[in-house]
Amino acid sequence: MSKLSYISPEGLRIDGRRSNEIRRLNMRMGVLNRADGSSYYEQGNTKITVAIYGPHESTTQKSLFDRASIKCEFAMSSFSTSERKVKSRFDKTAYETSTLIKQAFESTVLTHLFPRSQIDIYVQVLQSDGGLKSAAINAVTLAMIDAGIPMRDYVCACSATFIEGSALMDLNHMEERSGGADLLLSIHPQLGGVISINMESKVPQEMFESVLDMALAGCKKIYYLLQEQVKKHSKDLMSNQLVG
Amino acid sequence: MEAFQKVHPLEFYKKFLERSVRPDGRGLDCFRKINISTGSIMTTDGSSFVKIGNTSVIAGVKAEVALTPTQSDNSISSNNNNNNNKMFVNVEMGPICSNIFSSSKPSEKAMSLCSQLNSLVNRLEINDKELYFDDQGKYSWYLYIDLYCLDYNGNLMDACVLAIMSALKNVKLPKGIVVESSASEAPQLFKDTEQPMRSLNIGTYLIPQTFVLLNDYLLTDPSLEEEKLSSGTISITFNDRFEICTLLYTGITSISEKILEQCLEKTKKRSTEIINLIDNCCTTINNSNNNNNI
């Protein structure tokens, strides 16, 4: 059986992208009616929908006296992966992703404006093709903006790796499984700070720097597109208000 | 006005119902706009997204192969015997659709809807032979239909039934080849990629309609506020031969036969509309950018 080559001799990846191209983004804000803020986010074949409820009265005793508490739940639909996976109650990867998103937004949302209240984030993955954590973070950013919750900055996330001698950004499922250095970077693009950086692999330092640069470039590209979408959505809302 | 709605919701509604209209402008017998789009989720074998007004449900069908259970002569077969089921429905109503639901404990509504839909799906008259994996029928396809409610604004039952129907119509199964190997090893199952994928031949259509009783007025397709204020809910599902597949009434008041007959008549009247809706959504060519209805 021939070995699968992640990068063809012409420099194209499995899905025809170059090493420094992200997948096609398709975004909508305000898609769910009952939620205070919602978004639908597609990055290539990964499709995610997010609903945000809040800030509202804290339902648990864990309310903080001086700021809002953020609760996040990340759920994958049973049909989102190629093998049907029934959602189990104690799914560690789901908890890990939930915590990642919660921490990213605890540092970004101006929680001191809403003491003793709670902001709930619910992420539902409809189709999964790699880059789930980064897509979820980007989707939650859009939903937060739709909900009108004040934030310091956008949170943009991108994944990157190093396979067959070159750094690649925005991995799909096959590239994630390749066993390279799977790096997940999330940043504040305008303020310029790193929110989280996760990598579970062994890499030499020079390789790491090129992967990090690639991820940073990916985040900036995604930020540009998110900003375009927010402007477009706001323009639509304003024109609806003026007409109606 | 909004204060009046919050403080005296029933009085607020009465003022509209007296003039045979509802606060969102619909007549008492009018449905909200129904949008169905199929085939958006590519990891499934069939999928659909149904939106009735703002109530949104997404359905995904996954097919798995297993041995066909052999019919023993002594088994008592009845319509309620669920041992030979080849289709399983699961409904998830998580907190994403409404903050009244919790994620860890499935709500009563989800569980009861799940069991109602499981029995309903067997009324679709899908021949056993349709679900055979290979020609002899030694192995069969088992379909797992997962429904996720993304937005809850009343009338979930109708949305789920339409989602199941359109998702099943969207299912494409490959032809299967069974290769028997040596006696000690299990036979290997392959998908025949040379042959085109086949759709399921579904014998009938399911036409659902839900009514709600509010102050002696009969309202079709209740929204969430109407469901909360109602004193009873009637859910009817017909098949295309006007046989009753599901008839459910729950409520705190009793209803007369006349009201039940009215409901049955109204459901029958909408049957052609619903059948056309389901047919139209499945014949449109689905391109990759299919999520405009979301």
Level-1 CATH class name of chain A: Alpha Beta
Strand order, sheet with most strands of chain B? 1-2-3-5-4
Largest β sheet strand count, sense and barrel closure of chain A: 5 strands, mixed
Which CATH top level class of chain B fits?
A: Alpha Beta
Characterize the quaternary organization of these chains: heterodimer
Tertiary shape of chain A: globular
Question: Radius of gyration of chain B from the CA trace?
Answer: 21 Å
CATH-scheme architecture of chain A: 2-Layer Sandwich
Write a concise keyword list for the protein shown above.
heterodimer; A: about 240 residues; alpha+beta; Ribosomal Protein S5, domain 2; five-stranded mixed sheet; four-stranded antiparallel sheet; about 30% helix; about 30% strand; B: about 290 residues; 7 helices; disordered C terminus
How would you describe this protein?
Chain A: Keywords: Cytoplasm, Exonuclease, Exosome, Hydrolase, Nuclease. Chain A: GO terms for molecular function: exonuclease activity; RNA binding. Chain A: Belongs to the RNase PH family. Chain A: InterPro entries: ExoRNase_PH_dom1 (IPR001247), ExoRNase_PH_dom2 (IPR015847), ExoRNase_PH_dom2_sf (IPR036345), PNPase/RNase_PH_dom_sf (IPR027408), Ribosomal_Su5_D2-typ_SF (IPR020568), RNase_PH (IPR050080). The complex is a heterodimer of chains A (244) and B (294). Chain A is α+β, with helices and mostly antiparallel strands and 244 residues long. Chain A has a single domain, classed as Ribosomal Protein S5, domain 2, CATH 3.30.230. Chain A is built from four helices and nine strands, in the order ββββαβαββαββα. Chain A has helices at residues 92-106, 132-147, 173-176, 205-243, and strands spanning 25-29, 37-43, 46-57, 69-76, 117-127, 156-163, 166-169, 183-188, 193-199. In chain A, the strands form two sheets. Chain A has a five-stranded mixed sheet. In chain A, strands 7-6-8-9 form a four-stranded antiparallel sheet, sandwiched between helices. The model of chain A has no long low-confidence stretch (mean pLDDT 89). Chain B has a single domain (8-75, 82-284), classed as Ribosomal Protein S5, domain 2. Chain B has a five-stranded mixed sheet. In chain B, α4 (156-169) packs across α7. Chain B is elongated, with a radius of gyration of 21 Å. Residues 285-294 of chain B have low confidence and may be disordered.
